[in-house]
């Protein structure tokens, strides 16, 4: 991400995800029931998926366009790059 504001937002998300994973670790150590573990896993996965979506969106807007001031004007070969991103990161 380019701006400090964006970096701060991403770091805050990473810290929330870290907290979710640490809660999952504590739950496993405590031997909680599988239903609680599934809930914690889903929360962490949702956090990571949400962050992935934001970073992919940023990449599309700022790295696959010729001019960020003109959204939608793609660089040559950007369509294939977008398909590659989706195949690589969205599973």
Task: For this entry, give a set of tags.
91 residues, mainly alpha
Walk me through this protein's architecture:
The mean pLDDT is 85. α1 (4-30) runs antiparallel to α2 (34-63). The relative contact order is 0.10. By secondary structure, the protein is an all-alpha fold. It contains three helices and no strands. It is 76% helix and 0% strand. The protein has helices spanning 4-30, 34-63, 78-89.
What's the quick description here?
The chain has 91 residues and is mainly alpha-helical. The chain has helices spanning 4-30, 34-63, 78-89. The two termini are 22 Å apart.
Strand content: under 5%
Distance between the termini: 22 Å
What does the average pLDDT come to? Answer: 85
Q: Quickly count the helices.
A: 3
Largest sheet: none
List the secondary-structure elements in sequence, H or E: HHH
Structural class: mainly alpha
> pLDDT below 50 for ≥5 consecutive residues: which ranges?
none
Overall shape: it is elongated
Roughly how much helix do the residues carry, as a percent range? over 70%
Query: Count the strands?
Result: 0
Over the alpha carbons, how many angstroms does the gyration radius reach? 17 Å
Topology (SSEs and partners):
Blueprint lengths: L3 H27 L3 H30 L14 H12 L2
Helix pairs in contact: 1-2
């Amino acid at each position: 991400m380019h701006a400090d504001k964006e970096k701060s937002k991403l770091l805050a998300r990473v810290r929330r995800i870290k907290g979710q994973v640490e809660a999952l670790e504590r739950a496993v150590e405590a031997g909680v029931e599988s239903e609680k573990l599934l809930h914690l896993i889903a929360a962490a996965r949702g956090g990571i998926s949400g962050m992935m979506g934001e970073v992919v969106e940023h990449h599309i807007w700022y790295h696959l366009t010729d001019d960020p001031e003109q959204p939608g004007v793609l660089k040559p070969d950007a369509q294939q790059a977008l398909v590659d991103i989706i195949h690589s990161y969205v599973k």
